[in-house]
Amino acid sequence: MLIVKALSNGQFGIDSPCGILNQMVQYSQTHFDSSFGALSDATRRGVLEQLGRADASITALAERFHMTLTGMKKHVGVLEQAGFVRTEKVGRVRTCKLGIRGLEEEAAWIEGYRQLWSARFDELDNVVEELKRKEIANGSK
Length: 141
Description:
Arc Repressor Mutant, subunit A, 56% helix, elongated, single chain, 2 domains
């Protein structure tokens, strides 16, 4: 039986009969803080969704989200710092585009925790089934 364990250093390990397998990647905490911080705001997620359809100026984004230019610049700055957006200034217009960075590392980190919790819930199901079997066996005596 394999058990996925979250280690104290932010890594995952897999317990197996052969010992711990060090297959999981160590992730940079500041990188994740930046990514998840950028994605934690509904407006920023909306901006990413909008830019997934088409490039847009900060002015157009501010209008679309009913915000001031200053407010939208701050949101775009957070997304840009996380690598999700890049901007290009031509004349007086700053155009926003999706950045080249994807969410593969974040998805892998989330998947590790999904596996961990899935394994825990499977074990809980086994415990509940065993208790039910014992209850039925005790009731038939």
